Amino acid sequence: MKKVIITSVAMASLLTLGQADFSISDMLKDMKDAALTFSSDAKDTVSTIKDGMVEVSKSAERTTTNVSNNTKDATIKISDDMKTMEANTSSHAKTVATDISSDTKNSLKTTTTDLKDSAVVASTDMKDSASQVSSDIKDTVKNVSSDTTTSVKTISDAAND
Question: How far apart are CA 159 and CA 153, in angstroms?
Answer without folding.
Answer: 10
